[in-house]
Amino acid sequence: MPLFIFLSGAVASLWFNPEAFTQKPLLINLKALSIRTYKAFIRLVIPFVCWGLIAAFIQKTEQPFISILVNLFRRPDTGLWFLICIFYCIFLLNVFQAIFCCFQSLLSKIGRPLPIKFSSNLVQILLFTCIWLLIQGRLGNGSGFYSAKTNFIYFLLGLIFFKFLMGHLKTYLYLGALLLFMWLAPLWHRTNIHNLLDASSLESFAPQLVWFPFLTALSGTLALVFLVKKLEGLNIPKVNESLSFLGKLSLGIYALHYYLLELDPPVIVPLAICVIFSVIVLKIPVLRTALLGETGQ
Questions:
Q1: Rounded to whole angstroms, what are the CA distances from 5 to 10, 180, 211, 283?
Q2: Does pLDDT of 206 surpass 60?
Q3: Cα 13 to chain center, whole Å?
Q4: CB contact set of 208 (below 8 Å; sequence gap of 6+)
Q5: Which of 289, 263, 262, 287 is nearest to 277 (CA)?
Q6: Is the per-residue pLDDT at 95 higher than 70?
Q7: Alpha-carbon distance 41 to 83, whole Å?
Q8: Measuring CA to CA, which residue among 239, 193, 232 is closest to residue 212?
Q9: DSSP state of 165
Q10: pLDDT at 217 exceeding the cut of 70
Q11: Where are the domains of the chain?
Q12: How far apart are the C-alpha atoms of 98 and 156, rounded to whole Å?
């Protein structure tokens, strides 16, 4: 899931451009940020709610509708929690930008404009990252916000990586990440303390135990990005087109596959059903928005 959030940061890198706000009035900037938040709500929160209601129906939950809805936001991990997590990530980024725009406007009114270097995309995202690391421990966990507290850093790292770093990292850094992940992954456990399956092999590095989940997630993410870049570099059109097609249907595939895991042959049949389902849903406007967050063809 850190990889998934990291790739969501990659998508954000396509529209994150604080420099474009520099010469525009405050109200126009705030309106643009509110529209972006609204679009994220349609694309992420509505499918989150709809899939949660579908899951409750399949499980024959006898609770009233309003109770199902409240519980879904209290415990997003009972549904497609990553959708609400990504919405919070986009919302947080927009809030940071809105505060920065307000601060910039205030300085302009008192005749002390912001130094030009603070208007750059890189400086602002690094500033947002530092602020987040300072305040995240002081924020609450309500309405599933705890998922964003854990994963927003991967969203920011994905944005930084794809917007500023991807074309500059050397191959040996990716290979180092791959080797680190191969060492750490066998020790991984989803629920144990610090996610370690066996802490004994790292006991001599006790201070780093706290960093084990982060290092495992980040090294695995960079390793997979490297392998995908190499696969794309082979320039096999059918492979690249197929993976791109599946990527566009990833939400439908992820949401539905859980209910198809017992079908044989594994992977092939569940994937085929998920793809057919997603393609059909994309052709029905209401379902396209409700289940996949898509508002157009």
A1: 9, 20, 18, 27
A2: no
A3: 12
A4: 202, 215
A5: 287
A6: yes
A7: 10
A8: 193
A9: I
A10: yes
A11: 1-167, 169-233, 236-297
A12: 17
pLDDT of residue 42: 93
Cβ–Cβ under 8 Å, residues 6 and 157? yes
Which tokens is 279 given?
């393609």
Q: What's the token pair of residue 43?
A: 């694309």
Q: Model-level pTM? A: 0.86
Place of tokens 């289940």: 291
Question: Residue 200 is encoded by which pair of tokens?
Answer: 């004994």
Q: Dihedrals φ, ψ of 59, to 5°?
A: -80, 0
Q: Estimate to the nearest angstrom the gap between the alpha carbon of 184 and the chain centroid.
A: 23
**Count of positions (residues) in the chain:** 297
* CA-wise closest residue to 44 among 89, 13, 3: 89
Average pLDDT, the chain: 85
CA torsion 58→63→66→69, rounded to 10°?
Answer: -40
Kindly state the average pLDDT of the residues 62-75. 85
Question: Which whole-number Å values give the CA distances from 255 to 133, 261, 278, in the listed order?
Answer: 31, 12, 10
Here the tokens at position 266 are 């594994």
Residue in the block written with tokens 């505060």: 99
